[in-house]
Amino acid sequence: MLRLLARGSGHHSLTEIADSLGLARGTAHGILRTLQRVEFVEQDQATSRYRLGAALLHLGTSYLDANELRSRSTNWADTLAARSGQEVRIGMHHDGAVLVVHHVFRPDDSVQTLGIGAMLPLHATALGKVLLAYDPDLSAATRRRELTSLTRRTITRTQALERVLTEVRSQGWAGEAEEYMPGEASIAAPIRIPGGLVVGAIGISGTVDRLCDSAGRPRATLVRQVCQAAESVTTSLVDEN
Question: Which helix (H) or strand (E) holds 185?
């Protein structure tokens, strides 16, 4: 049941859960109530749908420390940089922000600054949106704070941010253009551990003209490359365990 809740949008009705697992509704409801009592599952009061709870998400986040996530992701990050031609960052949540645990330079001769250890805003970066989308507790805490405006495109309204996070869960990746820095864009996808819990994100960043098409949308080829890299890191974590 927890694996089911970790997949797709992360929001499932009782009927969907029961049907997917071949359980009677009463049986499924009993299991859900047990999981709710230990805060492994939460129920949205507005929609009555179920999702992973904060206790389980925090347990999953502690599963990997920053050094371990970095060491297991290095090869795939290097490959992504080579294929995309862009700089690559791997991040995880720390103290209300995105902690960059690994950074691969753009494969050209331009002057670049190593970003390992940098703290990036959750609401204005693709990495941050991925982390927010799959952690309801973190998302709720972020929406309770003032969303700082960094550029004229930064999302500062909580309702607008929630709509974006719903879209991230639906499509499986996040993007932003000039929300964090003018002229810059980024694309990211989730890294998961066994069971489907999201513990980090991998993404690329670069100029808007390189990452986005003429309509301002992330280029489909780059989105596929980022998602493939995230899936490869996830697979390596699953295989290790």
Answer: strand 184-192
Structure tokens at 197: 């819990």
pTM of the predicted structure, to 2 decimals: 0.75
Query: Cα–chain-centroid distance for residue 177?
Result: 17
Query: Which pair of tokens denotes residue 220?
Result: 């489909």
Which tens digit of pLDDT belongs to each residue from 112-158?
788 888 899 999 999 999 999 999 889 989 988 899 999 999 999 99
DSSP bridge partners of 185: 177, 206
- Give the Cα-Cα-Cα angle 180, 183, 185 (nearest 5 degrees): 55
Torsion of CA 195, 58, 168, 172, to 10 degrees: -20
Q: What is the dihedral of CA 231, 69, 188, 241, to 10 degrees?
A: 20
| Collapsed DSSP state (helix, strand, coil) of residue 141 | helix
Which domains does the chain possess? 2-52 (1.10.10.10), 61-240 (3.30.450.40)
What values do phi and psi take at 102, rounded to 5? -155, 145
Q: Three-class SS of residue 12?
A: strand
Per the structure block, which two tokens stand in for 160? Answer: 């607008």
User: Reduced to 3 states, what is the DSSP secondary structure of residue 66?
Assistant: helix
pLDDT digits (tens, 9 = 90+) for 150-170: 999 999 999 999 999 999 999
The pair of three-digit structure tokens given for residue 43, joined into one six-digit string: 């129920």
Q: Which residues of 102-134 are buried (b: 16+ CB within 10 A; e: fewer)?
A: bbbebeeeeeeeebeeeebbbbbbbbbbbbbbb
DSSP state of 180: S
